[in-house]
Amino acid sequence: MLALGNEKKSVRRKAVEVVGYYVNEACLAELERLATTDESDEVKEAARAAVEKVKRKLRYFGADATLQ
Fold first, then answer.
1. Of 64, 37, 34, whose CA–CA distance to 50 is shortest?
2. Cys-Cys link to 63, which of 13, 32, 53, 58 (CB 3.0-4.6 A)?
């Protein structure tokens, strides 16, 4: 999770890709923040994709309906 705040955009981008593989509600808020506020468009795009991936998994596994 620390890598999500790294100063290098390449590290942040890779971190959001990796975090997106896990079903983890704790990381979802940070991914959503990066998807809208990161200075790098590349990181924003990767974070948006990771958010959608996590939300799909949470819905599939029956998590909170508010994530739909």
1. 34
2. 58
C-alpha span between 27 and 47 (Å, rounded):
11
Would you report the helix, strand and coil content of the chain in percent, each value rounded to 5? Answer: 75, 0, 25
Say whether 18 sits in a helix, a strand or coil: helix
Least Cα distance to 19 among 2, 38, 42 occurs for 2
CA dihedral 24, 50, 17, 42 (to 10 degrees): -140
Angle made by CA atoms 62, 21, 27, in degrees to the nearest 5: 75
Q: What is the pLDDT of residue 49?
A: 94
Pair 43, 15: CB distance under 8 Å:
no
